[in-house]
């Protein structure tokens, strides 16, 4: 349990489980772990920017999702990301929204 | 107690009202292969256990001749499972190594699976096993046409059992099998008879079975990407469709994970199933994913690619989602990300298997 935020650990999300450096390990390969977390943050931010929100790593143990006005929430893993994002932004985050898809496609090229 | 697995698999037996769940269960209960199993049923009376009875443990729980523990669920399933777990730990019931849950005919089976993942006690002791769905050979087609629950039950099944086959004629059996293959192309399909299929076939291990079943003889479990529903003509049939999405270039696991969690968060109740083999960037071996509605099982590494073809293929069984949009969305959300990842130093990815 984290003594600061009181979050009980141990809820493994399915995205945590694939053999890649920094994914399985909790105690060793500190750098790989940070790199993997940074990668997750970057992947999430690509989409969150469309909603005016951003995600950042928090102490290597949780993530903080924040809006541009500073409303923020601590989340533990990617499983909690989208419910929190919808709460903070007050609108649905729908990957099947044609406007969002178009935006992602535009960002591609 | 030595043979109690770290995570006891929980198998789900479901099927529409009157589709033969109880009959199947009654036959399985007499099977010696079910000796180390705890069975949760709705009502003792239905099954008629008296002649198998050895000992009554308490008002909800009995021990059968085969060595199988049988109990009724009163109230919450989670409570019943916790009670079973507690009794096993205290040695009040024989150590069982799997649990079979009979669900009611109209229930959406998904909440049972979700209970196992979310309950703070259960998720450390139990894991979802496979889902067995019974389908009535006589009324099955009509039920699939009429009731959305029936479609959902068929769609999330790992094994389908066609019951009452002796009452149906050949053409209607073929039609039913074809319909089931369209709703759920990769589930094992069995025809129930007096002597089969046995408990070992129906309740084989989920994890290993799943990884194995993902690779059919031809290399992939779903060869014909079939578009369905509308062709069949049934107008009021729910818009359940299954389709395959292929991605040619290696996928980035993180980007894919973010996309799929986003999709499931918004549309989880309408994505009945996700199954697939992924070619991940920086991975030599294929990774199989498997999800039922909001629940995604931990990904399984498979032995090797069946052929030189390394296309990621993901089967979706969805209820009323726009297929075109979903495909577009997957590509838009994951493609540029995978390009970004291949730009990161590959050395780190290569060193992975040894340093772990």
TrEMBL record, chain A:
Superkingdom of this protein's organism: Bacteria
The name this protein goes by in its record: Uncharacterized protein
From TrEMBL, chain B:
Alphabetized CDD domains for the sequence: CobW-like
Reaction it catalyzes: GTP + H2O = GDP + phosphate + H(+)
Domain CobW C-terminal: from-to ranges: 240-334
Keywords, in A-Z order: Chaperone, Hydrolase, Nucleotide-binding
Molecular-function annotations in GO: hydrolase activity; nucleotide binding
Domain of life, per lineage: Bacteria
Cross-referenced Pfam families: cobW (PF02492), CobW_C (PF07683)
GO cellular component assignments: cytoplasm
Family classification: Belongs to the SIMIBI class G3E GTPase family. ZNG1 subfamily.
Function: Zinc chaperone that directly transfers zinc cofactor to target proteins, thereby activating them. Zinc is transferred from the CXCC motif in the GTPase domain to the zinc binding site in target proteins in a process requiring GTP hydrolysis.
Protein name according to UniProt: Cobalamin biosynthesis protein CobW
Source organism per UniProt: Kumtagia ephedrae
């Amino acid at each position: 349990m984290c003594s600061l935020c009181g979050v009980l650990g141990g809820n493994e999300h399915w995205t945590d489980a694939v053999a890649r450096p920094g994914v399985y390990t909790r105690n060793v390969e500190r750098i790989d772990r940070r790199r993997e977390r940074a990668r997750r943050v970057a992947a999430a931010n690509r989409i969150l920017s469309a909603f005016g929100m951003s995600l950042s790593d928090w102490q290597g143990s949780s993530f903080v999702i924040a809006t541009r006005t500073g409303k923020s929430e601590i989340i533990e893993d990617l499983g909690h990301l989208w419910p929190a994002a919808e709460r903070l932004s007050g609108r649905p985050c729908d990957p099947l929204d044609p406007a969002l898809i178009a935006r992602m496609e535009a960002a591609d090229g | 107690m030595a043979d109690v697995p770290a995570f006891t698999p929980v198998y789900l037996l479901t099927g529409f009202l009157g589709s033969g769940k109880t009959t199947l269960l009654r036959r399985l209960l007499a099977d010696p292969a079910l000796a180390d199993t705890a069975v949760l049923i709705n009502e003792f009376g239905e099954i008629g256990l008296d002649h198998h009875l050895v000992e009554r443990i308490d008002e909800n729980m009995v021990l059968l001749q085969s060595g199988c523990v049988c109990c009724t669920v009163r109230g919450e399933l989670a409570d019943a499972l916790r009670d079973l777990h507690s009794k096993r730990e205290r040695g009040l019931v024989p150590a069982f190594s799997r649990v079979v849950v009979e669900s009611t005919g109209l229930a959406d089976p998904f909440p049972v699976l979700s209970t196992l993942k979310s309950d703070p006690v259960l998720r450390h002791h139990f894991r979802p096993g496979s889902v067995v769905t019974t389908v009535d050979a006589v009324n099955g087609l009509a039920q699939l046409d009429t009731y959305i629950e029936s479609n959902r039950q068929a769609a999330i099944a790992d094994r389908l059992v066609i019951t009452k086959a002796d009452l149906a004629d050949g053409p209607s059996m073929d039609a039913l099998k074809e319909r089931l293959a369209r709703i759920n192309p990769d589930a094992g399909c069995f025809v129930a008879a007096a002597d089969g299929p046995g408990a070992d076939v129906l309740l084989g291990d989920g994890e290993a079975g799943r990884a194995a079943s993902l690779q059919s003889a031809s290399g992939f479990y779903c060869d014909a990407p079939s578009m369905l529903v509308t062709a069949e003509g049934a107008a009021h049939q729910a818009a359940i469709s299954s389709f395959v999405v292929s991605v040619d270039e290696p996928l980035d696991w993180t980007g894919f994970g973010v996309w799929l969690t986003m999709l499931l968060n918004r549309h989880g109740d309408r994505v009945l199933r996700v199954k697939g083999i992924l070619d991940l960037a920086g991975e030599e071996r294929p990774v199989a994913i498997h999800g039922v509605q909001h629940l995604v099982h931990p990904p399984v590494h498979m032995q090797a690619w069946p052929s030189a073809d390394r296309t990621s293929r993901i089967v979706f069984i969805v209820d009323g989602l726009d297929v075109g949009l979903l495909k577009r969305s997957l590509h838009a959300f994951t493609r540029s990300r995978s390009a970004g990842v291949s730009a990161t130093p590959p050395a780190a990815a290569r060193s992975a298997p040894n340093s772990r």
